[in-house]
Write a structure and sequence with these properties.
flat; alpha/beta
Length: 130
């Protein structure tokens, strides 16, 4: 019997990899004569950057959705001239209070600032998790 374990993160508690490992271990302990493959997945939000290998983790100071400065992580591969950006990280919705989560007052200008910076660094390809 073959199993594919592919789960998204459990928001606020476990990453895709952590929950996948738990499920994989439970299957291995309780079922015999099987093959288990685990793949981490993300929907483009929190945890998206964790899916990519052969990229260097970088940081950039930009603006969140409430136009407050903050530092964000992104991934860069100088050889392939690719960047990976997680919009949830850049706009920082999880750091905002409920009062700040007003679509008439928030902005994604911080994402534009990061992309502009990367274009200045000669990055040609973007993988953007929404």
């Amino acid at each position: 019997m073959k199993f594919l374990v592919a789960v998204n993160e459990f928001k606020g508690s476990l990453s895709s990899y952590e929950i996948g490992e738990i499920i994989l271990n439970k299957i291995n302990k309780s079922i015999y004569n099987h093959e288990v493959t685990m793949e981490v997945v993300a929907d483009g939000g929190d945890g998206f950057l964790g899916l990519f290998k052969n990229f260097e983790r970088k940081q950039f100071r930009t603006l969140n959705a409430a136009l407050e400065e903050h530092t964000v992580n992104y991934l860069l591969n100088y050889i392939t001239k690719e960047a990976v950006i997680e919009v949830a990280e850049v706009i920082g919705l999880k750091q905002l209070s409920e009062d700040q989560k007003d679509p008439y007052k928030t902005s994604t200008v911080g994402l534009g600032k990061l992309i502009s910076h990367l274009l200045d660094e000669n990055i040609e390809s973007f993988i953007i998790g929404l």
